[in-house]
Amino acid sequence: MAREGGLIAWQWRGYADNHRDRVNLLLHFVAVPAFIAGALAGLRLLFLGQWLAAGLALLLAVVAFGVQGIGHKREAVAPVPFDGPADFIGRVLVEQFITFPRFVLSGQWARNFARG
Predict the structure, then answer these.
(1) Which of 44, 62, 69, 71 is deepest in the core (most CB within 10 A)?
(2) How does pLDDT run across 64-86, given as a tens digit for each residue?
(3) What is the DSSP secondary structure assignment for residue 82, as one 8-state letter?
(4) CA-based Rg of the chain, rounded to a whole angstrom?
């Protein structure tokens, strides 16, 4: 799927509309950092050969992502469906590592929460 301006710009344009429900905002506020911590720790632990610990860390990332999915079901505006596995991976990684942190740091998370 072609996205004007690239994935990061495309995701940002609609992000505030897909993140208005207060419960979803709170779930994301906790789950996105958990996803980031689990993913980064999991990769580091894999590199160090600590397989069990890596698996547990990556499980944390998966659970955190699942929690966000539960939150998204509460939203009036649903996210655009994924267009295959590559789209899924790209959009998830961009959301977790770029778009949601930007959403919080820009003040838009707080504005949407206040409007909630």
Answers:
(1) 71
(2) 999 999 999 999 999 999 999 99
(3) P
(4) 15
